[in-house]
Amino acid sequence: MLSAEDNDLFTRVGPGTPGGELMRRYWHPITGSAELAARKVMSVRLLCEDLVLFRDASGRLGLVEPFCAHRRVHLCTGFPVEEGLRCPYHGWTYDTTGQCVAQPGEPAGSRLKDDVKLKSYPVQELGGMVFAYLGPAPAPLLPRWDFLADEPMLRQVGYVIAPYNWAQGMENSYDAVHAEWLHGHFFKYALDQRGNPDDPRYEINAIPMMRKHSTFRYDRTEYGFIRRVVLEGESEAADTFSVGHAKIFPNITTINAGGTCVSTYQVPVDDTHTLYIGHRAYRFPDWIDVPAQTEVPWFPIPIKDEAGRWIDDDIVGQDLMVMISQGPIMDRTLEVLGTTDAGVIKYRRFYKDQAIAVREGRDPINVYRDLALNQRLELPHSKNFYDRGVFGADGRALYRRGSATGALGLQNSPINDLIEDLFEEAARKAPLIPPTAASGGR
Ligand code: FES
Ligand SMILES: [Fe+2]
Question: Among candidates 396, 399, 394, which has minimal Cα distance to 421?
């Protein structure tokens, strides 16, 4: 249970709030590179601030306050030109720093434009996403986590703006045991309701998830926390415990196994809406040819079906269902916590400590300013990227179609078949590995 004051600290992200000031020390993804390429100019909202994102005709990215300084037309209606973003009403033009550089209706030699400047923020692209930084200058470096920076990779990104406070998303991720129930027992129930006993998701997803978490732990690391889990029937030697899964402070969760890094971002749009981003990076073994990727797909994640029912036969759909059902801002003064909430409690305490650090004028963790260090920030999961599939008794790799892309909020992906084909091919062409040296996959 939290006090009302701590509930606010943990959830509110507007300018001037302790949480808002902490979250402003980080770069946050605001859209996909593919989305911006298609739209060129778009409205975005981040940390309770409305902004306009654009790519000008010279290829530069800009993120500025939303209204034209002239007569307040919303600049999401503007159009890109060589010098920046042009307002459609009278042609005033702003460069990527927000400086007004043209006022076509003013007389030649007019200096009026020199005094007109919109607020602007730094913006950068990496790994198929566009990131913004709304904090104090100088902006830190955009962290180059391995799953964003490494090549060659194939990537795809699902997203949805959903009506829940971002902290509910993070608590979900620091709550290991929910997987056993929501993604195990409940998943099985949701599949039972659909009445198809041959649905491969029983075997691939629901049944394995139902195993009891006999041990779960969150250890502090330099980038946040590492989640370590031992499932019933396994030991601490299993990758889920010995390697674990990285939680990158403040709002990224990674799950990595079998050639896939699934990273989930809970981006605070405002206090009651979250941009949920499921970023997938796939790394294939070097014995198959992987086509070069020119654009990372960015597509919506469905929350409900056409009949208005939760999409509860999907892991991401299940997470969204519970997070949204907690309400726009969950009232933590009313909760009753149990022993399985140790990770949630740890995360809340750490978040508060970091907010205090910022208030006292210090950098919180994960603020990078060293170019050499930031070339590649390696997470402990990296070795698992290569271990796709389970090796059979003959030492030959097996791959069960659907393991990489099924039940993961990827219903609208245009490249699921390509990913599945490549993993199947990788397993088929894998060199024989003696069974003793074989390693487990997902
Ligand atoms: S309102 Fe934008 S140029 Fe006039
Ligand atoms: Fe979950």
Answer: 399
Residue with CA closest to ligand 1 atom 1: 71
d(CA 6, CA 192): 41
Tell me if 77 CB under 6 Å of ligand 1: no
- For position 344, what pLDDT does the model report? 98
What is the architecture of the domain spanning 146-384?
A: Alpha-Beta Complex (3.90)
Q: Domain locations in the chain?
A: 27-133, 146-384
Q: Which ligand is nearest to the CA of 94?
A: 1
Given the DSSP bridges, would you call strands 273-282 and 79-81 parallel, antiparallel or unpaired?
unpaired
Strand-pairing partners, residue 55, are 61
71 within ligand 1 shell (Cβ under 6 A): yes
In the prediction, which pLDDT does 230 show? 94
Q: Closest Cα partner for 22 from 249, 242, 182, 334?
A: 249
Closest ligand 1 atom, residue 91 Cα: 3
| CA-based torsion, 10, 12, 18, 20: positive or negative | positive
Place of tokens 């040819």: 289
C-beta separation of 264 from 277 below 8 A: yes
| Res 428: pLDDT | 87
Q: For the segment 65-91, what is each residue's pLDDT rounded down to a tens digit?
A: 999 999 999 999 999 999 999 999 999
Q: Write the DSSP symbol of residue 399.
A: -
Could you tell me which CATH number the domain at 27-133 has? Answer: 2.102.10.10
pTM for the whole thing? 0.95
